[in-house]
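Schema walkthrough. Field components (list of strings):
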Amino acid sequence: AQKVTQAQTEISVVEKEDVTLDCVYETRDTTYYLFWYKQPPSGELVFLIRRNSFDEQNEISGRYSWNFQKSTSSFNFTITASQVVDSAVYFCALSVYNTDKLIFGTGTRLQVFP
Amino acid sequence: AAGVIQSPRHLIKEKRETATLKCYPIPRHDTVYWYQQGPGQDPQFLISFYEKMQSDKGSIPDRFSAQQFSDYHSELNMSSLELGDSALYFCASSLGLAGGFLDEQFFGPGTRLTVL
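Field assembly_structure (string):
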């Protein structure tokens, strides 16, 4: 069975602080995909990143960076110099090879205060 | 760029009524997914279609049915609505499992269903 755990229910930071959102996944499949989605207060789900299980390279996109470590089954997401507009619920998700569905974690609500 | 379109955006129904939600995928996307997100919950996979055939099924109640049409749009039909069906229903589209590798799913804005 597959599972995604986001242990942090809610995080509050002050603008310009760095913040890391944790994601731990479980799967017996050797080929799988990991995703991060952002859900702002308006409700839509915004795709941020996809990573497949054979690509452990960390990725940086502007203020966002992702740290994928198969050894610890983690796919953590860091926002550098956070901004108020980063306030949202962030979901980590998993999909295994040859299936369609995304299995979401329970989400982490990030609040960035000015 | 064109995005996934869902209609209606908001829907209010009474218990035991029926509802139909529509989804128009991004052009050239052949795979459609439906997810249900209850209040304060994570999205839960309901069902997916690839080339008009059901490709995967999750925790979709028997009262719900869905299909994908020849123009690739999809409809989720919900009957005998219950209070617990109140949720945000997302449709997503993708190029699906091209060669076994999963393309990213792009989500629509969602339909907020309220059952009174």
